[in-house]
Structures are given as C-alpha cells and as structure tokens.
Write a structure and sequence with these properties.
Blueprint (H helix, E strand, L loop, with lengths): L3 E5 L3 H12 L3 E6 L3 H11 L2 E3 L10 E4 L6 H5 L8 E4 L15 E7 L16 E5 L2 H11 L6 E3 L2 H31 L8 H10 L5 H4 L9 H9 L3 H18 L1
Parallel strand pairs: 1-2, 1-4, 2-3, 4-5, 5-6, 7-8
Antiparallel strand pairs: 6-7
C-alpha cells in the first residue's frame, strides 16, 4: 500500500500534486531537485524535507518524477529505488523510459494546467494511469482515487492523443487569449470584456459538439470580413488568423 511519497522535481505539477496528496492523508517525505532553491521552496511549503543529493533520496513507497520529458532519464539516473514504484507525470512520454530504474513503474498523468500559486480542484482533474504489471496498476488506481474520482487507464498511444488535444484546447487557446489581450491593449481596451464570450463558448461545448458550436466569419465563409481583419494584422498574428480561418472553412465543407 502506498503511504510515503518522494517527489523528484519541484515544478508546477509537483507543487499542486504534492499538496493534494498531503490533504488526502499521504506523507510526502521528501522533495528532490537539482536546484536547492526550488527544492527548499516546495519543502518549506509542504513542511517536509528536501535534498539535492541523489545519494540521500529518502525511502518511500512511490517516487513521482515530475520534470521535463527530456530531463527524466538524467533526473532518475544514479538513484537506487529498491524496486519501489516509480512513475512519471508526462502525457506524451512512454512508460518504458522508466524500465531501467525499477521493476515496478508506470505513469500518473493528471490532465490539467498547473501554475504555482493557483489552486486546482482535484475532484475535477482526470488522472490517466498506466503500469507495467497488474499489481502496480492496482496500487496506482487506489492511490489516484484518493485525490480524484476520475481515474482511467490509458496506454501511451491514448495519452499522446489526450496530450495533443489538451495542448489544443488549453495551451494554444491561451496563446490566442494572449494575442487578443495584446490587440485589445493596443486599442485601450481590457481583456476582461472577453470573459462573457469565453464563458459562453465553454458552456456551449458542454452540450453540443465543438464543430456544431463553431460560429464567426470564417464559418460563414464571409471573406470580406476575414480579409478586412487580415489587413489589420501582421507577422505571426496575420499567419495564425489566416491559417485558422482556412482550417475552419475546410472543416465546414
């Protein structure tokens, strides 16, 4: 049974997930990070210990590696896990990257956007899990259900599709928000005027498909308006508007 947890990494995911685990009654016994500042900051926030020395990693039932995908191998290399469970939190990385480090490994992918200082309602966070054996799957399922009721098994292929979709609806959409914010500020307008529109857009796709919910000049093939907008944009803004408008029109055919 999983009770004691060590985090390898001290970024946004580790900060939110570790706090949720403590709230759920688990013991986060240590934070490991290569940088003292980040390890100490998260450890102080959680009132636990930290280390930057791989030879001083504490014993635990579960080790959660939440670092950048291309840093996972380096982060885990040289740590002796004594065949305890090791997971990563990536949506796009295959599980078998952990195979050299322990006999029991898997993935714990919380599909949400995390920012330090912004609390997340973990009851609304889908968690996708994968493991290399049935016992580890059972352990991770029980563990994950203590922090979220939405726990689903998903292999690497499914997780990659989920991650791509998440990037589209979250990261790309937020970039468009930033683009709109900049445009509005250039005209002495505030982004908050867009919030009712954003809210209605989200509410609509809860009840009808995104394709059916599509509106706007591109979906109407109103090229006069599209071209007028394009004439007012330049650089990447022009490219993004043009490409998305064309994609919307192609989808409507």
């Amino acid at each position: 049974m999983i009770r004691k947890v060590v985090f390898i990494g001290a970024g946004n995911v580790a900060t939110s997930l570790s706090k949720s685990l403590i709230d759920a009654g688990f013991e986060v016994v240590q934070i490991f990070s290569r940088t003292k500042e980040s390890a100490e900051a998260l450890a102080n926030y959680l009132n636990t210990s930290y280390t930057t020395d791989k030879n001083k990693i504490a014993e635990a039932d579960l080790y959660i590696c939440s670092v950048k995908d291309d840093a996972i191998k380096d982060a885990l290399s040289g740590i002796y896990f004594k065949n305890k469970i090791v997971v990563h939190t990536s949506g796009s990385l295959e599980m078998d990257i952990l195979k050299p480090f322990t006999s029991h490994y898997g993935v714990l992918y919380p599909m949400q956007t995390f920012t330090k200082g912004k609390n997340v309602d973990w009851n609304q966070v889908p968690i996708f899990i994968e493991a290399n054996d049935n016992n580890t799957i059972s352990e991770l399922t029980s563990f994950a259900k203590h922090i979220s009721p939405i726990v689903t098994e998903a292999d690497s292929k499914k997780r990659k599709s989920l991650h791509i979709a998440a990037v589209l609806v979250c990261n790309f959409t937020n970039h468009l928000y930033a683009m709109a914010d900049r445009l509005l500020k250039e005209n002495n307008l505030e982004f908050k005027i867009m919030l009712p529109l954003i809210t209605e857009t989200v509410e609509k796709v809860k009840v009808i498909s995104p394709k059916a919910a599509q509106t706007g000049p591109a979906s109407r093939h109103d090229m006069k308006v599209v071209n007028d907008h394009l004439s007012l944009l330049s650089g990447n803004d022009h490219k993004i508007y043009e490409i998305i408008s064309q994609a919307i029109q192609d989808e409507q055919l």
